[in-house]
Amino acid sequence: MRTLRTTLLTAAAAGLAVTALAQVPAAAAPAPAPPKFLSAGQLPASLTPWTAGPVRQGVPSEGSVCTAGIAPAAGTRHRDFRTELDTGARQTITVAATTARAKTLAAELRSALETCLDRLKEQDPGLEGEAFYQGRVDIEEGAHVYSIDTSYPEVGSTDVGLYSVGRDGRAVTVVEWGQLGELDGAPLEGFKKTTRTAVAKLY
């Protein structure tokens, strides 16, 4: 009888232990690391060194005239770069909720770049310029490079901008580079290399 009672108590204790373990919530899976940004040394070569600003949450408050209003503030971060000359750059990264949304966002950003010069001319009839699609960079889900030359003939000022949109899974990145001058003086091949690095660093 004592042996049977001991056996029952042992079984009951084991049952309570199993129940208690079942009620302990499983440890939450660690959140994936956020996509990585370019460093200053990964920007196209410049006559003076690049300086990288801090990574900031949300969309840029100013600039990025071609793509403003496309990416959502939620899930977006950005980083600005500058040199001692009239050259600047920016990288923006958005992590969408799903791969499908990321794909749609990338398409919308590309469309915004393709129509940017026409929209700028509508806003400022005195503006002249040329825009070109500079090709695809084969990295992850792909990246696409654009250039936009603008000028104001009345004052003799010229500016050139290089832009790219790339995607890796749910992450979409836009890289912008600009300086005074014309496309002939822009580091197009260096910018394509920077774009490749930017997409490769996302994950």
Question: What does the model show?
Answer:
By secondary structure, the protein is an alpha+beta fold. It has 4 helices and 7 strands. It has helices spanning 2-23, 99-114, 116-123, 188-200, and strands spanning 51-57, 76-82, 87-95, 128-137, 143-152, 157-168, 171-180. It has a 7-stranded antiparallel beta sheet with strand order 1-2-3-7-6-5-4. A hairpin with a 4-residue loop joins strand 2 (76-82) and strand 3.
Write the layout of secondary structure elements.
Elements: H1 2-23, E1 51-57, E2 76-82, E3 87-95, H2 99-114, H3 116-123, E4 128-137, E5 143-152, E6 157-168, E7 171-180, H4 188-200
Antiparallel strand pairs: 1-2, 2-3, 3-7, 4-5, 5-6, 6-7
Brief digest:
It is built from four helices and seven strands.
Kindly report the average pLDDT value: 88
- Could you give the count of β-strands? 7
Order of helices and strands: HEEEHHEEEEH
Task: State the secondary-structure class.
Answer: alpha+beta
The profile of the biggest β sheet is: 7 strands, antiparallel
The portion of residues assigned to helices is 25-40%
Strand order of the largest sheet: 1-2-3-7-6-5-4
Taken from the alpha-carbon principal axes, the silhouette is: globular
CA(first)-CA(last) distance: 65 Å
What's the gyration radius in Å? 26 Å
**Tally of individual helices:** 4
Oligomer: single chain
As residue ranges, the low-confidence spans are 1-22
Strand content: 25-35%
